[in-house]
Structures are given as structure tokens and as C-alpha cells.
Amino acid sequence: MSNSLLQTPIEYLKGVGPQRGELLRKELGIHRYEDLVNFYPNRYIDRTRYYKINELQKNDSEVQIIGKIIHIKTVEFGKAKKRLVATFVDETGEIELTWFQGHKWIRDSLKLNVPYVIFGKVASFGNTFNMAHPEMELLAEHEQSLRSAMQPVYPSTETLTNRGISNRVVNKMMQQLFVETQAKFIETLPAYLLDELKLIPKNAALFNIHFPKSQELLSKAQFRLKFEELFFIQLQLITKNLVRKHKIKGHPFTVVGENFNNFFQNHLPFELTNAQKKVLKEIRNDMGTNAQMNRLLQGDVGSGKTIVALMAMLIALDNGFQSCLMAPTEILANQHFNGLTELAKGLNINIKILTGSTKTADRKIIHEELENGSLHILIGTHALLEDKVQFHNLGLAIIDEQHRFGVEQRSKLWQKNDIPPHILVMTATPIPRTLAMSLYGDLDISVIDELPPGRKPIQTVHRYDSNRLKVWKFIKDEIAKGRQIYIVYPLIQESETMDYKDLMDGYESISRDFPLPQYSISIVHGKMKPADKDAEMKRFAEGKTNIMVATTVIEVGVNIPNASVMIIESAERFGLSQLHQLRGRVGRGAEQSYCILMTSFKLSSDSKVRLETMCQTNDGFEIAEVDLKLRGPGDIMGKQQSGVLQLQIADLVKDRDILMVARNEALKLLKKDPSMTLPEHQTLRTVFIELSKKKNIWNYIS
Length: 702
Ligand code: ADP
Ligand code: MG
What we know:
CATH 2.40.50.140; Rossmann fold; seven-stranded parallel sheet; six-stranded parallel sheet; binds adenosine-5'-diphosphate; binds magnesium ion; 3'-5' DNA helicase activity
């Protein structure tokens, strides 16, 4: 069996030997045959395409062309230096081929007026194209060669290249390895999975990752190997998670009763999107078991998380439990309170709000009602975490915008009870943080990946401060149509005073340009008393003012469908996810919405990328990807989670779809066969145990 053969030290491979073996170990961590098989190319050169000479462009990387040499000459240059120059033509034009070394031998071997396939990098000098040291092959031979059309390029290091281990050499080693092992590798996945997901067998996958026969087979090989990698990680994580879940009991919500059904049948203000239904089902399933739910609900701004939250709380209520919803700011808590009260107005339930500014008298009532169980749903801020707040029986805690609450705070909610409430964390910040979390197994994930119907995509543009007059004119036109406008200023904690000054200066000049009585302006910032803030928000929400000048306090959650223009001042100072969040404040109604990013002329290259990204896409996932590239995964994942996940072939960001499939399959498998002892899981189990020894999940993370 090739299994033990794969454990052979790499220097025993023909053509490697002790010296190269040492290099491979040191530079690439390749110790055994097995490591070499699992050393995958990081890109491929496409040799399926043939270029015509008139299609060549400056900066074309590597291309291949079919044509003939019609002329060869030796050109002298410098002191006693020569180069060989050939004129190569096809029916569309001509290019020069050059050689600086080995003239005689090459000159002798080249044939005139015979079809060749040439391959190499093109450079351009003026109007002529040139290819230095091309790979040459007679067309007749080319057609018969078995070489893969897609040529693998392996990761390398400077030392390796300097010591002669070129890509070609690695390629040769790989060929040798496939010869020695007869390309027989153990199938690691059960047959029914291969069937179900149409995965190609392990042998075929490894063969095609190194020697792809076609683009199609390469894609299949990549898919299979990525799936496998993520699948085994998920098996590890979920196994760990199951252990955790067995320890942490939860309240089983077994009934879906009166309140839920009444709401669903009689008070639903719109039809739920399929994504909302799907997510609700996942939540229901979780809460139906006697293990604690720990779920993350992820959905872009405006995707409709609020109603999902309410319906989950109704399930809790139908099972005789209380719920709470915690928001990071008072404005948001208020907004949730108003929104949920409105949604639930046909139902006979008691919803209240508790924040830092709740009056003592009201507070007392809330405390009482909480303890005697007559208060069903409590919305609030951090105030919910105070010791005095004692629930009669908290069954579900929903946390909005999780990045503002730490894990400790989350657990503070339930340390008060014996059996913890189910936890639902809602966030509009998509991956990568959350993806990493799924890898931690800390939370299960639900995604609302669909916006309610009828939304028009927000149009985003970038304008320099010097164009402000035009922007103001645009705003006036929009206001004349009855729309409302946000103008947001950055607020960065360290320079709060300066930011405050920017905001107030801005407010003054806006007030001058948009004078009363024709226009009225609201302002909201962090230095205001909560009551004043709310009053201003309310005026704007009710349409009494046209413009809302604000700092980022309005960043999350605020919902005013009539506001259709978001102007972000000093947009270069905001991070991508923040810009996206801010933009999400508009585009909530039926009207066309706009986001205008105002900046000075001084822009760093990163700022430019951020602005361009914003103008190009509304997709939060795409934006998160760019963010990941700009900031690096360590930064995004936060300090305690720093360190990149060391994956061999899968990419957590790009392959999130495969990750989800892998996760689902792993869940299904472990549900059916938690200890992986069924006959069809025999090999899987062996591989799993070996892998867990060698690559414990924590190794991926550090
Ligand atoms: P977010 O996910 O950002 O919290 P919200 O829950 O605030 O989104 O919903 C955004 C807006 O979309 C709200 O005005 C809400 O009433 C509306 N909405 C939510 N779901 C639907 C739906 N299925 N059909 C139509 N409108 C919806
Ligand atoms: Mg929301």
C-alpha cells in the first residue's frame, strides 16, 4: 500500500538526495514523500490558449504563439557581445526572438519556415514585440506531447532558486514521486460523499492538481482538495463543539405557539425573504434542543434581521420564557424598541426599554416586572448587564452588533441563571472575523444572503472637497423631491476635540448654505445628552428636518427609509467596513439612493483602494475581502485571534461557500455517526485521528 511508502524520507526520492533533501526540509517543510504530494502549486500558466501576434499587448505575461521563423541573424553589440535574433511570423504579424547565450547550438537546431509553438514572456520596444529565450517546440511534436496544458507554478524561496531547485526541478520531482508511488493514494472521503457532492477521487485530484489535463479537471481537483481540507477541520471543530454542548445545557423550546403563529398569520407586514425563512428555521432548530444555542446571525445592512429577532423572541415567549435584546448605543436601543413595538402592536405582549437614561420610577417598574415574569421582552443597552437587572427566566438573549460586546460581557448575561439563555448575536459585519469564528467553533452561523425585494442598489461616487458646490446643488435637488440627507463626520476617539471642531465647523457652514426657513437641520453627536440626541433623531425620523449632521453614532442600525443621500466627509479617514455600514443607512426605501464620499486631494494608496471599492460594489462580502487584503487577517481577526490560519489550499475568504458545504456535511456526518465508527467511515476515522495528532486545530491558528 502506498501509505507506508508515503512516509519515506524525501531524500530517498530519485533525483533528490541528502543535499536537496535538506533544502526541501528547511525551506518548504517537506520531510517525506507525503509532504511533497501535498505541496500544491499556487498558480498555473495557461497553455491552452494560443495568441495571435496582433493580439499581443504590453505587459502580457507569458503567452504561446504558433508561427514560423523566416530569418535568423547574429547581432553584435557592446564589446564582443553577440545575440541571436530571429524573426518569427504568423499570419497577423511578426515579433523578434532573442537569445543571449548558447548561440551556435541554438542556431543549428532552429529550422526555418517550419511551424513552431513558442512560449515565453513578451516585452515591447517601441512598436515591436520581443520574446527572449522562448521555449521552442515544433508544432508537430507539440501536438503529440502529453504535457499538461495548465503548467503548475510552485511556491518557492530565494534560497531554493539560487540553489538550483527551480520550478522545473520541483515538477520533475513530482513526476518521479508519481512514478514511484504509482500514483496510488488512499481515498480519504467516504464513497457516498464523493457521490453526493460529485467530488473526484483522491487519486485523480492529486494527479490533476500537479498535472492538470484541462482547466475543468484542475477546477475539480481544487474543489475536491479544498473541500477535504475544510471538511477535516470542521470535523475537528464540531467534535470539540459537541463536547462543549454536552456540558452546557439549554432550555428546550419545544412549542411554536400562539404568539408566533398569530404574528406569522395575522401581523407579518411583508412576506419574509427565503433567506429570512431559512435563518429562522435554523434558529428554531437550535432552540428546540436542550443544548444552548450560540448562533451568529449575519446579514448585510438592510437585510432584515430585526424581524427574525422578533420571531425568535416570540418562540421564547410561547415557551414561557423572557427575552432581551442588547444594542451598543442608546439610539439603537430606542430604534429597536420602536421598531419591535410597532411590529408587535397587534400582539398582546409587554415590551420595555432600559438604558442609562431610564428614569428611576420606570426602572423600578421594569425590575419588578422582570422578576415577576410579566415583562416579556426587554430591550436595552449595557444597562441590561447591571446586577440589579434580574430576570424571572431569561430564555433568549439577542445581541446586536457583536463587535462592541466582548465575550465576557456576553457570558455576564447568563452567569446569573443556572441554565443559560440561548444566545443570538446579530451582525452586519460579514466575514472574515465571523468566518474565523466558525473555525473556532465558538458560534454557529446563519447568513441572510438576500435583500428584501425592490431595493435599488445605492449609487456611490467619490467627490473632492473642491466640488462641494455641485454636491450641495445635488442635495438641494434631492430635498426638493422630498428626500432627506445624512452628512457624517469622522469621530476618532484620540482626537475627539479636533473632530468635534470639524463637526461644528461643518454644521455652521451647512447651516449657512441651507438656511432657514427653507431648510432645517438636525445634529447628533457624542457630546450631547441622550435625551437631546433622541429628540433630534426623532425630528429627523419624522421628516421634520431635511438634513442630519452627525458623527458615526448613526453608524449602526438606524432606519429612516426616506433618507436617500449619505454624504461622508473626510471619507479617507474611515475604514472600509465603517464606510459600508454608514452607506447602509440609505437605500432603505423605494427611492434611488446615493452615497457621496467627500475627500481632500491628499489620498494614500490604501484610501484610494477603499474609495474605489466603495464606488464599485455594494456587496458586503466583497468589501470585507478587500478589507482583509488591505489590513491583513491578523488585524481583522483581532489581537486575541491573531495569526493566519495555515491552510494548504483553501482560502477562508474566497472559499467560504465550500467552507459552508464542508461544515454542513461534517455536521450531518457527526449527527449520524458521532464517533465515526460505521464501516463506511473506517478510513475517514483513521485519517481523522492521524490528522488530529499531527494537525490539531490549534496548530492551524497559531
Ligand atoms: P437590518 O438587517 O439592517 O437590521 P432591518 O431589520 O432594519 O435590517 O430591515 C431593513 C428594512 O427592511 C426595514 O425597513 C424592514 O422593515 C424591511 N424589511 C425587512 N424584511 C423585509 C422583507 N422580507 N420584505 C420587505 N421589507 C423588509
Ligand atoms: Mg438592524
